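tool_call: predict_structure(chain=1)
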Amino acid sequence: MMTSSGPIRRVALLTSGGDAPGLNAVIRAFVKTARLEFGWDVYGVEDGFEGLIGKPKIRPLDLSDVRGLLPMGGTILGSTNKGHFSSFEIVEGRRVHDPAALNAVCETVRKLRIDGLVVLGGEGSQAIALDLYENGVPTVGVPKTIDNDLGGTDMTFGFHTALWVATDAIDRLHSTAASHDRVMVLEVMGRHAGWIALYAGIGGGADVILIPEIPFTFEAVADKILEREAHGTEFSIIVVAEGATPAGGTAVYQSEHEKRLGGIGQSVAEEVQRRTGKETRVVVLGHLQRGGSPTPSDRVLATRFGVAAAKAIAERKFGQMVALRCGQLTTVPLREVAGIVRGVPVDSDLISTARALGISMGDERG
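tool_result:
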């Protein structure tokens, strides 16, 4: 490895990929633990991995630098999901990144004499962290994504805040939908996993929930709307994950070039109105789900992860990601989570709960 078994003196952390509520809470907890409990020098890397390529973009972080961060959204270090690591190849089922970029990061870490690098990010960022670890960088991962789709952990910070935003939106849509006897379609984030849509749909009392894990038919969705109308309910709420896919069809992208999902809500709305004759409107939450102050639940989870990351470095658990399993903090090997998307199991009790409540999942089972 790049570092010896000598004492740990200098550590750094970076935030990578899309932002999520709770990033600053992790930074705060890590810095406080690293400084107060272990006496390390702490550095923040700006703009994700890009801050370690070329001229380093790092700055020291002391207790005064993290004061007031707990309720603050975004990340004081900046983040990016573009740059040298935005493209990769799949070789034997694993992401392979640009060797020149990896070598550049390794060289920077060596020159800065960093004894431990913490990577806050989702499955893509953890794949980069694994590559760095296998090339000599002592890395520790922290699971971050509003989508809650990262393997190895039961929960990621940022998810509960996004869920609260989505559920609040459904609550608000109920009143306007009922006032005008309309069908309201709410498109939420989640990429290729339906956790946000499923939780928000159940928590908000949706009538139809469409998720990537269960291909849907427009006919089944329209039938649910007409069934409610036949029983005297003139309005309906549909929650659709951005990666939901019609049976036999493909996902809808705002940009095929960048593979940026978005637009399925409009497609659903147009088909529902055509098939039912009911006035249908669309609301796309988009980046509202990523912004703002984290909920108390996300603040606590992020804080636990930040402390756990510092302790993992102290215990030299490099090549590991801190994780929450069965309510307890632990670590899991990066190779078990890197590049792996954790979707909603189709046989989960969440889905059976939704069906028992009469919520349609858009398939032949209703």
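agent: The domain at 161-291 is CATH 3.40.50.460 (Rossmann fold). Proceeding to next step.
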